[in-house]
Amino acid sequence: MSDPEPEPLLSVQDLTISAAGTDTPLVRGAGFTLQRGRTLGLVGESGSGKTLTCRTVLGVLPAGCTVTAGRVRFAGRDVTRLDRRGWQPLRAARIGAVFQDPGSYLTPSLTIGRQLREVLRVRGGATRAEARERALGLLAEVGLRDPARVARQIPAQLSGGMQQRAMLALAVACRPDLLVADEPTTALDARTQRDVLALLRSLRERLGLAVLFVSHDLEAVAELCDDIGVFRRGELVETASARQLLRRPAHPYTRSLLAAAGLLEEEPYAR
Ligand SMILES: Nc1ncnc2c1ncn2[C@@H]1O[C@H](COP(=O)(O)OP(=O)(O)OP(=O)(O)O)[C@@H](O)[C@H]1O
Ligand SMILES: [Mg+2]
């Protein structure tokens, strides 16, 4: 007999997120699990709840939005209503994050090297000397040529692609178990998108990361992800293995998404 499935690294159950002063929840009853080392893609139309779901997993819902039902478990703990202090040991250390606009998440006035050293020391418990050495190693790891030079630069001196690489270096600096990547390539040109996706894939393999990946690029999602969840108007209408979702999409909305991306592998109503 095979071993029972281990408890997922991340489990989101019946997640409902509401904004103050409105009756209709922004996210309703969303549920999914993510095992260690696996990648789950979230797709769906604009405003359907992907980012709010990611932000719940990161413990950074925007002001005015709250989890009104359901729960989030990470590494065996209920993290749904952790306060700021409760999140501290998890953020960056166990869960890393990259977003669409690295420019607004990097600190504009601090050099990349300083930002990396701070994360390594404050979140990763590294000594000053260790942090200095590892910061350069990380910049090389994310494919930045001349790490010593990049370490001395501030974000505005880097191209968009280099900023996203620097953001990835920060996100994986403390060797987290989970990486939340919310549209990490959307703002980049096509070639840089491919490079950053290849980097994401290689970091995932090398570090054994679980990845929660949000993108409007269905082709990239299909290529990168083990499983895919489809959001529509605040609800997760379908979740399946990437293979199954592409071959036999169950929900009409999934079919229309795939058809629009030219990825429908069968005639929608042929059966
Ligand atoms: N701070 C907020 N206060 C109130 N409503 C919000 C807030 N942030 C997001 N929303 C609403 O919540 C819904 C879900 O937004 P979310 O950002 O999760 O969508 P998304 O799927 O990430 O969309 P996109 O693909 O455009 O990034 C939207 O209707 C949005 O307008
Ligand atoms: Mg979003």
Bound molecules: adenosine-5'-triphosphate, magnesium ion
**Could you name the CATH homologous superfamily?**
P-loop containing nucleotide triphosphate hydrolases
- How much of the residues is beta strand, in percent? 15-25%
Q: Can you tell me the residue ranges where pLDDT is under 50 for at least 5 consecutive residues?
A: none
- Roughly what percent helix? 25-40%
Number of domains: 1
Please name the CATH topology.
Answer: Rossmann fold
CA-CA gap between termini: 36 Å
Helix-strand pattern: EEEHEEHEHHHHHEHEHEEHH
The total of beta strands comes to 10
| CATH-scheme architecture | 3-Layer(aba) Sandwich
Strand order of the largest sheet: 6-7-8-3-9-10
Principal-axis shape? globular
Q: Quick one: biggest sheet?
A: 6 strands, mixed
- The SS-based structural class is alpha/beta
Task: Please report the first level of CATH classification, the CATH class.
Answer: Alpha Beta
Number of helices: 11
Mean pLDDT equals 95
What's the alpha carbon Rg, rounded to whole Å? 19 Å
